[in-house]
Design a protein that fits this description.
Length: about 150
């Protein structure tokens, strides 16, 4: 019962992040910190804190590379620091299971963003200079959770 309440709180925070990131293109530190602390609490509750910390680091690593080297390559910021912090928090919630799950996460997040850009272009006939990437990270998080539920049954 406690886990259901915790995940209800997680989804409320995720909805707040989606709304704020879409409108203002910002992910608040208190939202990220809340998710991170919930992930740590779940790690203690499920006795898998080590795998959650490893997941937090490994899920974040590709986004750190994009942030660091993408800005050099394209001469502008490719990814915000809030998105990197969000990725760290989502990694703490997901934990490390295997590299295949991480690859699925990365593919879903980037492909959903690409589909959004293409769909938006087809409707408005213009390309946005910036899009909020947080909602696509959250879509990938939900997709991984659905896969995990499906694997258990």
């Amino acid at each position: 019962m406690v886990k259901y309440i915790i995940y209800f709180i997680v989804y409320i925070i995720l909805m707040e992040i989606i709304i704020r990131d879409t409108r203002e293109k910002i992910v608040l530190n208190k939202s990220n910190l809340g998710l991170l602390l919930i992930g740590i609490y779940l790690g203690f509750l499920e006795n898998n804190l080590e795998m959650r910390v490893i997941g937090s680091a490994i899920y974040t690593l590709p986004f750190l590379f994009i942030y660091a080297y993408g800005s050099d390559l394209f001469q502008k910021e490719c990814l915000g620091v809030g998105d990197i912090k969000l990725m760290s928090s989502l990694g703490m919630l997901l934990g490390f299971k295997n590299f295949y799950t991480i690859l699925i996460f990365l593919n879903v997040s980037f492909m959903s963003a690409l589909f959004f850009i293409i769909f938006r272009y087809l409707i408005t006939k213009k390309i946005d200079k910036e899009i909020a990437f947080g909602p696509f990270l959250i879509i990938a998080y939900i997709f991984i959770q659905i896969l995990e539920i499906y694997d258990k049954h």
